[in-house]
Design a protein that fits this description.
Family: Belongs to the eIF-5A family.
Oligomer: single chain
Domain Translation initiation factor 5A C-terminal: 82-150
Distance between the termini: 49 Å
Strand content: over 45%
InterPro entries: IF5A-like, IF5A-like_N, IF5A_C, NA-bd_OB-fold, Rib_uL2_dom2, Translation_prot_SH3-like_sf
Keywords: Hypusine, Protein biosynthesis
CATH architecture of the largest domain: Roll
Number of domains: 2
Protein name: Eukaryotic translation initiation factor 5A
């Protein structure tokens, strides 16, 4: 995305969902927006064509797992998503993938997790066994997804 095309989208709470970063400074294991999707960078290479350096990025969409690719001039700005991970205590999980989570502040959050997702099966199994679970929710660009969990001991 060239500097002329760069724009900042705001979330519902008025915070920017992305920030600009020069393509040449983005590294593997960082984040980038490719084709409008928040991605974790898994490959970066630099090429020079006709005296112009370009960065080739391969990213994995953090929500869908899709592989996306993009080539950007080295000195142009790219959008980088603000990615946050928050831990919640699992309060309840239903057979249809409806999950109720409890924040440390006492506020509840409702999310859905696909029942065919292996993570759902593991979380459901742990819950059915009466284990206390801490669930990690990753959020970026207005989307949220349960990405991990761990068993917690008695307080």
């Amino acid at each position: 995305m060239s500097d002329e095309e760069h724009h900042v989208e705001l979330s519902d709470d008025g915070e920017p969902m992305t920030y600009p970063q020069q393509a040449g400074t983005i590294r593997e294991n960082g984040y980038i927006v490719i084709k409008g999707r928040p991605c974790k960078v898994v490959e970066v290479s630099t090429t020079e064509e006709d005296g112009n350096a370009k960065c080739y990025f391969v990213g994995i969409d953090i929500f869908t797992g899709d592989k996306l690719e993009e080539t950007v001039p080295y000195s142009d700005n790219c959008d980088v998503p603000h990615v946050n991970s928050t831990e919640y205590r699992l309060f309840d999980i239903s057979e249809d993938g409806h999950v109720i989570l409890l924040a440390q502040t006492g506020i509840t959050k409702d999310l859905e997790i696909p029942t065919d997702d292996p993570l759902f099966q593991q979380i459901k199994s742990g819950s059915d066994e009466g284990k206390e679970l801490l669930v990690t929710v990753t959020s970026a660009m207005g989307e949220e997804k349960i990405t991990a969990f761990m068993e917690i001991g008695p307080e």
